[in-house]
Design a protein that fits this description.
Largest sheet of chain A: none
Largest interface: A-B, 96 and 93 residues
Number of domains of chain A: 1
Radius of gyration of chain B: 25 Å
Order of helices and strands of chain B: HHHHHHHHHHHHHH
Number of strands of chain A: 0
CATH topology of chain A: MetI-like fold
Helix content of chain A: over 70%
Order of helices and strands of chain A: HHHHHHHHHHHHH
Oligomer: heterodimer
Radius of gyration of chain A: 23 Å
Helix content of chain B: over 70%
Low-confidence stretches of chain A: none
Strand content of chain A: under 5%
Shape of chain B: globular
Number of helices of chain B: 14
Mean pLDDT of chain B: 90
Distance between the termini of chain B: 45 Å
Structural class of chain B: mainly alpha
CATH class of chain A: Mainly Alpha
Number of strands of chain B: 0
Amino acid sequence: MSQSRIMPGFRPTISFTVFYLSLVVLIPLSTLVFKSFQLSFDDYLNIITNRRVVAAFRVSFSTALGAAIIASFFGFIVAWVLVRYSFIGKRFFHALIDLPFALPTAVAGIVLATIFQPSGFLGKFLKENFDLQVGFKPLGIVVALIFISIPFVVRTVEPVLQDFDSRMEEAASSLGATRWQVFTKIIFPNIFPALLTGFALSFARGVGEYGSVIFIAGNLPYVSEIVPLLIITKLEQYDMAGATAIALTMLVISFLLLLLINLLQHWVRKRSGQL
Amino acid sequence: MSAVISTRVHQSTLEDANWVRWSLITVALGFVILFLCVPLVLVIIQAFSKGFGAYFSALSQPDMQAAMRLTLLTALITVPLNTVFGVAAAWAITRFEFRGKNLLITLIDLPFSVSPVISGLIFVLVFGAQGWFGSWFVEHDIKIIFAVPGIVLATLFITFPFVARQLIPLMQEMGSEEEEAALSLGASGWRTFFLITLPNIKWALLYGVLLCNARAMGEFGAVSVVSGHIRGMTNTLPLHVEVSYNEYDTVSAFAGASILAGLAIVTLILKTLLEWKQQTNR
């Protein structure tokens, strides 16, 4: 060990860390992999290419994608307003951004369902005026996932916007750039990697989200049934093989997303000169 | 004169025009109010929709009380365990050099990227009736799945990274000079930890504990898979909210939800205070 030998406690802390990590995380998680090895590849393919399963994956991914795009757009504006402008109640709004992290997903789920169901006060308004039904439709899933995504986008973009070197803006504007040019050519390209990271985090979270979605979704197979719900349905039917195969597929996709997010964050730090 | 004009031009390209400013503020606040304020207010309105009496009688139902107790019990077991783990892991990772450190950090973060439902499923696979150790536990009449131990295990998994992830970057940034100084002057390891390290990390530690607790009390997906939804026995407060809502018992559902929303508000207030403390202490 190259470090000072004076520091105590390496053995007990590292042993406890590895032991506890294995017990709580690694062993249970590896069970999923080992269990799916009990399936033949054909069985696995059969489960995964089943029409209902494919439809659930399509619903989960398309709604998570839509929600992440909308949340990125509005989240960017919210971050911009919170960093750049001052107005009454700014601190309150700033603290409120983290509500989706703090509010249990089941609570978010029943409240959003109550608001957006056809008899709810916004659901009714949208139905009567725009002939738009949100509750019990895939659109409802998008609404729930936007709620979940807000802090991911705002909290990723905010610090980068805060640390943004305003001398670059000054330089550009003193060279005669218009405000719009300064924004599109200087500010946005520098913020973009952070925005993309926020987008990816929202997307990854949205694909696996369960609690806030199931109340508003309607959960109709082929239409508004998400993958996590399908896993639970398979479990309740004692279809362990089905649940395991779908879960493993989801897990692999999440890990690929995680890898992508890490690469993005590396890129962000490199661009902002922290590496 | 020309200097005045040039600063004006300069300013107008550095600051957004008033109409841009106000429309962006309107869009941002409108979005936040619609998606965050309205839901929060609606929980309270719905909870009291049948009056105070109905609200308090819903809260005093035995099933509701049992759910609250189970939620508290789960948090009381999982938060201290994950806190001790977080401190130990941060100490090992930030105070020593060893191979595989980055892998270890990645593995600690793993539960964050696993869907809650899958987090519950893996414990069913290990301990369920068809699971690896399932038959052994059945023979010895120990219930893990559809019982309290399963709920605790799933919550442990879900809240696993919270404390460690707050402490690791902070302790990395702090460095170990102060601790080395104390140790070389003859202080014991524990004394150094309690007198040097702990005062330096206390706000970040509390921050991690706060977030860990909020998630432990509010977790729904993972717990829902392992709980079996037995009323008064294995329903945590979020699960009781779900069951009541699905049975169209709106007052009960939102009364339970109002307790959880209160917890979220307290968490946000403490979080803001702790962020402020951490900034002023730097």
